[in-house]
Amino acid sequence: MDPEILRLREGATLNRGLLAFGNCIRALSNPSTAELVNYGESMLTQILAQALGGNSYLLVVACLRQGDWELNKNTMRHVAELQQV
């Protein structure tokens, strides 16, 4: 199979997983929706379900890139939401 096609498919799968992760974090950070989290949206959220919603401690390392304001802003928004979990 063409490597370019594989790369595009992998990118779409990764984006779907990150979107599902963001949805879970948003739901968990809001007390009114914390019990209604859908961890089944992606393999990533299924793997992280116990760490995110279980009785555990979670350490997050966020990486920022100089000059990439939009990406950094989104990263920091996710970190702020994670602090509410």
From TrEMBL:
Gene Ontology biological process terms, A to Z: microtubule-based movement
InterPro entries (alphabetical): Kinesin-like_fam, Kinesin_motor_dom, Kinesin_motor_dom_sf, P-loop_NTPase
Keyword Secreted: no
One cellular component term from this protein's GO annotations in UniProt: microtubule
PROSITE patterns: KINESIN_MOTOR_2 (PS50067)
Alphabetical keyword list: Motor protein
GO molecular function ontology, one term from the record: microtubule binding
Ranges where the Kinesin motor domain occurs: 1-85
Pfam families in alphabetical order: Kinesin
Keyword Manganese: no
Family indicated by similarity: Belongs to the TRAFAC class myosin-kinesin ATPase superfamily. Kinesin family.
PANTHER family: KINESIN FAMILY MEMBER 19A, KINESIN-RELATED
Protein name in UniProt: Kinesin motor domain-containing protein
